Structures are given as structure tokens and as C-alpha cells.
Amino acid sequence: MKHLVLIFLFLVSLIPLKAQELNAQVIVNSDLVNQTNQQIFKTLERSLNEFMNTQVWTNQELLKQEKITCSFVFNLTGYSNDQFEATLQVQSERPVFDSNYDTPIFNFLDRDIVFSYQEFQPIFFNQSSFESNLVSLLSFYAYVIIGLDADTFQINGGSNFYEQALQIVSLAQVTSRKGWKPSDGIRNRFWLIDSLRSNTFREYRQALYRYHREGLDQMTSKPLEGKEALMEAIQMLDPLFRRRPNAFLLQVFFDAKVEEIVNLFSEGPEVDFKATETVLKRIAPFFGSRWKQIKA
After folding, report:
1. What is the rounded CA–CA span in Å between residue 99 and residue 176?
2. Is the same domain home to 146 and 28?
């Protein structure tokens, strides 16, 4: 009987379900806030974790193990009268095929975080209306994360999810909070989703697919071919740089990938890395000291 139960549970785990897409961890760090009563921060953290891990964002059918691992770290810098000021570090990753390694996909710091929250206030997402800046922030990044993950598995696979993120940006422009409008800065939520959707920056999404699906996912069975695909993916970003030297998405790509690139090309099968190294130094000079560490 025990064996039958185990078999049943295993089979249930393999049934595709319209389920929550994210395996999210939300952290509310209040170390910088002078507040004796920490309870509201704990309540906020608990509510945000529940929201992010119970909300169904798409109509995709997913296996339990296919949830996207991600994190949202609110570093609070101010709190007064239910008003919160913070920075938000958003990260996501995905597993590499036939390995126990998770590769970083997104690593983004949003400095323009201001929102209102009352303890035990219900948090819910409405696709067709603006509910609050807090809900819009989390929902926007949820769709960006899902879209980027999809782009690593299929060329332009994230397009529908970027459209959802765009709708959130459009609805959120009714608020005076920063980050939703083109005039709010050059590297904010508006410009992030605008760049992801733009054909001008198409190489970024093409490189995501080449790097992950044809590069990393092949490394276990075909390490040399996988490594060569990684180099090709990096070189695919060069035309983007030549067209737009200060492209926002180049910074986004290397903020997530710099450590991984250094590690991958410092070990494993030897390849002719000179052309790729030249491209890296040209398109990502802000990481020049890291590229020098590569022992290809």
C-alpha cells in the first residue's frame, strides 16, 4: 500500500497544472530604518511572499519542478506614516539541463521604490487596473522574469509576457511614483520593458536563447560545442553595441552573467577565446578587471 501511495504522489507531481509560475523569496530588510516595532515589516514580508507564490500569472501548464526560482529584496531606507522608501534587488535563475547548476538570468537593482502599505492590507493583482504601486512593482517584475525565462528556452518566447509587463507600466503611469515614465530616468522600468520589446535590441533576446539553450544546456553532454555556442552568443551582442553603445540591456546582461562567464571560460575544454575576449572588452568595459581574470 505504501508503494502505491508513493507511486501516486510521483505521478501527481508530473501532471501539468495551471499553477503558480514563481518560486519566489521576498525579503524585507529594515536594518537601515529606525523603527522599534518591527512587526509591520515582518507582516509585509509574509504578505508579499504569499502574494508572489500564490498568484497565477499566465495560463501555462507547468510541472511543479518548472517553477522559476527568483528573489525580491527590499532594502528599506525610510518608513513613516505607512509610506515606505527602498531599493529593490530582483534576481532570477533557471536550471541548466542535465546538471545541478542554476544559471542567473536577471540581476537588477531598482532604486526608485516608494509605496504605501498598512499592516494586514490585502494585496491583489488586477490585470486591467492600477491597484497600488507595490502591486504594480511586483507584478511588473514577475512578468519580466517569466518573459526572460521563456526567451532562454525559445527564440522570442517571452513576447506575450513582455506585453503584460508593458500594460502594467501603462496603467501605473497614473501614479506620481518614479520609474514608470520615460522622463523618470534612463534605466528604469519604462526603459527596461521598452528595450525588451524593441527590435532595435533584438540581439539581446537572440543571445539569451543561444547562450542558454544551445550553450549551457549542452555543456554536460557536449562541453566543447556548448562553450563554442556561449562564445557565439556573446559575440552576437557586438552588433547591438555598435548600433547602441550605451544600450541598457548590455548592462542588464552582464550584471547577471559576469561571474558565470569568468568561471566558465577559466575551466573546461580549451577554446580560442581571443575574439570573444576582444568583444567583451569592447562591449562591457565596466567589467574590464574581471575579463582579465579569465584563463582560457
Report:
1. 46
2. yes
Looking at 169, 197, 225, the residue that finishes a domain is 197
Domain count, the chain: 2
Q: How far apart are CA 74 and CA 173, in angstroms?
A: 22
Q: Kindly state whether residue 3 falls inside one of the protein's structural domains.
A: no
Task: Assess whether 174 and 235 both reside in one domain.
Answer: no
Tell whether 204 is covered by a domain.
Answer: no
* Residue numbers of the domain that contains 245: 215-291
What radius of gyration, in Å, describes the C-alpha atoms of the chain? 21
**pLDDT tens digits along 259-274:** 999 999 999 899 999 9
In single-letter form, the type of residue at position 295 comes to: K
pTM, full prediction: 0.92
* In a domain? residue 207: no
Q: Could you tell me the pLDDT band of residue 185, with boundaries at 50, 70 and 90?
A: very high
C-alpha grid cell, residue 210 = 543561444
Given a cut of 90, whether residue 132 has pLDDT beyond it is yes
The residues, ordered by sequence, that sit 6+ positions from 228 with a Cβ below 8 Å of its Cβ are: 271
- Cα–Cα distance for residue pair 171/176, rounded to 1 Å: 12
pLDDT in tens, 59-102: 887 777 789 999 999 999 999 999 999 999 999 999 999 999 99
Same domain, 262 and 161: no
**Same domain (yes/no): 254, 125:** no
